# Entry
Amino acid sequence: MFTDWLVEAYYLRLFLQLSKIPHYTTLQKFTDRINVVMLRKIISSFILFTGTRHIFTSIDSTGFKIIHASEYYTSRAKLRRKRYAKLSIGADVLQQIVCSIKIRRAPTRHDSIDFRPLITRISKIKPLSVVVTDKAYDSEDLCTS
# Structure
């Protein structure tokens, strides 16, 4: 879906100097090989490039299946489909830029576990002005910090 969206994102393609849109498998291979520390540095460089003084951040998370196999293949090969990863994202809402990510392979844990690490990493890049979350982060422990 990202490569389909990239067709419409003319200014992003111009900024990234993409002469052609990469095949989706190229992006899958990149995500399998990228070092997490390097990915965090790339993300923070985008924030510093915008020149914003304060970050108006929002945090949310979602789950993904880990394997890239099709639904048909996994049913025919009788593979277990219970392998998921949880992705938590902190983004600057005004600039619409991802500020920090946290990936974990245990999706059954509560989303509020990733709140403090995300906020800490984002605040090291730039000062925070507002933090907005959904009800999955509703915890008295988070309100007192």
